[in-house]
Design a protein that fits this description.
GO terms for molecular function: beta-galactosidase activity. The chain is an alpha+beta fold and 515 residues long. 16% of the residues lie in helices and 31% in strands. The chain has 8 helices and 30 strands. The strands form 8 sheets. A 6-stranded antiparallel sheet has the order 21-10-22-27-24-25. Strands 11-20-12-17-14-15 form a 6-stranded antiparallel sheet, with no helix packed on it. Strands 3-4-5-6-7 form a 5-stranded parallel sheet, covered by helices on one side. Helix 3 links the parallel strand 4 and strand 5. Helix 5 packs parallel to helix 6. The longest helix has 18 residues.
Length: 515
């Protein structure tokens, strides 16, 4: 990921250098097909995948290094590994893997206060991640004790923070940001602003955190960053622009003009397809005696399913207590009637009296994999292990892969949709058209009256919405839109609103508009 480094030079001027901190290790869901997988260690199954990946990737990266005339002046070995620290041989292995494949520029590590002392590697420059001036003082002291007098860099200065569903919208005051950035530069450190622009977790790519409780990130990665999710200026931008201009002694150039935001006419869905009808038009389900987690489903050329939902079906003949390990959230149905949810906190649900043959269905959503902390090895999604009724394991499942990709929706041709009934059956897909003028522009969709689901625009997955907040609008870039009518599909789990509104103002938290 290219980031900007502000490096102090003699005479109190600032030089602007391009620093490429390469996040080489992108963890793929298929790694979890191995039941013994130990991610971010020297476990053979992991290093085999890393070596193969590096063999392909480094042949492209090596020629781009500074010594060969390219822009890469440094390479980050790993990210905050000291906070994980499951295998002391792992970081030296990654360092050697990079060097053996031709990486010759300066190597870096990057750690926060929880992992700095455990994250250092011989021959690699340690850098720090922080948000406060107190952390700056503490971590700089640790750095000196670890590596003596070396160039200093704050690899991640956290200009805000990400949000989780059901939590508050996180805000960091612009005056505090200014004071901390000023302190960092006065301490002689280079600085990388994380984030300068956060952007959006489009589709299903949001992550999650899991310490005491599992918390999935919202679709917006606005982060209360220097620029908003849509690229607009903030008070932080204005103040930092003035600070850097003062330090450099060079007036900054005029900033680019902002992109126009548009309010379109409300979109009223016209057509409908219940999930129970939709599965009739899908490929034959996978059958298994026991539940199979998402990553191990026999789809995508053996790579399993990475994101989305999985629907499990089996038959039951009695009432009782249903229990099982559901990751991350499972809506339970008897035939087509929802009776509740299973998740991390609710692991049991009562099945009411049934009359003979009944189809038990569980629609499981992968809400996002944990990307920090000690739980990364346990990020398999779907039903994990057996599902029990009165402590007896259920058998003979039909399993539908609902990855909701473009290919997934291509099977729902025009004659499969019907007019929206007075009382729709949920979950369901709703189809409408957003009318756009001659110049498509950015906008924000507001789903007031809708509860929880996913929005798709012109076959692209815009992201999730959920009325528990804090996020209440979805950023829709103008480049996603075409002149005229634009297809919008909404997958709603429990209750639909009548319209989807368009606004020119993002609403990311209760009583908190971004400006």
């Amino acid at each position: 990921m290219p980031t900007w480094s502000l490096r102090r030079r003699p005479g109190r001027t600032l030089g602007l250098l391009l620093l490429l901190t390469v996040s080489f290790l992108v963890l793929r869901s298929w790694l979890l097909q191995d039941p013994d997988m130990k991610l971010r260690t020297t476990y053979h199954g992991f290093t085999k995948a890393v070596d193969l990946y590096f063999d392909h990737l480094m042949s492209r990266v090596v020629p781009l290094q500074y010594k060969y005339g390219g822009p890469i002046i440094a390479v980050q070995v790993e990210n905050e590994y000291g906070s994980y620290n499951k295998d002391r041989a792992y970081m030296p292995y990654i360092k050697k893997a990079l060097e053996d494949r031709g990486i010759i520029e300066m190597l870096l590590t990057s750690d926060n206060k929880d992992g700095l002392q455990k994250g250092v590697v011989d021959g690699v420059l340690a850098t720090i991640n922080l948000q406060s001036q107190q952390e700056l003082k503490e971590l700089n002291s640790v750095l000196i004790s670890i590596q003596g007098i070396q160039p200093k860099m704050v690899m991640e200065y956290w200009t805000g923070w990400f949000d989780s569903w059901g939590g508050p919208h996180n805000i960091l005051d612009s005056s505090e940001v200014l004071q901390t950035v000023s302190a960092i530069t006065k301490a002689g450190s280079s600085i990388n602003l994380y984030m300068f622009h956060g952007g959006t977790n489009f589709g299903f790519i949001n992550g999650a955190m899991h310490f005491n409780d599992y918390k999935a990130d919202v679709t917006s990665y606005d982060y209360d960053a220097i620029l908003t999710e849509a690229g607009d200026y903030t008070a932080k931008y204005t103040k930092l622009r003035q600070l850097f201009g003062t330090i450099s002694g060079i007036p900054p150039p005029p900033p680019p003009e902002l992109i126009l935001k548009m309010i379109y006419e409300p979109m009223r869905p016209s057509f409908y397809l219940s999930l129970w009808d939709a599965i009739l038009f899908m490929d034959d389900p996978f059958t298994s005696e026991i539940p199979v987690n998402m990553e191990n489903l026999p789809v995508n050329n053996g790579n399993g399913q990475a994101f989305g939902y999985v629907l499990y079906e089996t038959t039951i003949f009695s009432s009782g207590v249903l229990s099982g390990l559901v990751r991350d959230r499972g809506q339970v149905f008897l035939n087509k009637v929802s009776i509740g949810f299973l998740d991390y906190k609710t692991t049991k649900i009562t099945i009411p009296l049934t009359q003979g043959y009944t189809i038990l269905r569980i629609l499981v959503e992968n809400r996002g994999r944990v990307n920090y902390g000690n739980n990364i090895d346990t990020q398999r999604k779907g039903l994990i292990g057996n599902l029990y009724l009165n402590n007896n394991p259920l058998k003979n499942f039909k399993i539908y892969s609902l990855d909701m990709t473009k290919k997934f929706f291509q099977r729902f041709i025009a004659d499969k949709w019907s007019m929206i009934p007075k009382e729709p059956t949920f979950p369901a897909f709703f189809l409408g058209a957003l009318s756009v003028g001659i110049y498509p522009s950015d906008t924000f969709l507001k789903l007031e009256g809708w509860v929880k689901g996913v929005v798709f625009v012109n076959d692209k997955n815009l992201g999730r919405y959920w009325n528990i907040g804090p996020q209440e609008t979805l950023y829709l870039p103008g480049v996603w839109l075409d002149k005229g009518l634009n297809k919008v599909i909404i997958f709603e789990e429990t209750m639909a609103g009548s319209v989807v509104q368009s606004t020119d103002t993002p609403y990311l938290g209760r009583n908190q508009y971004v400006n």
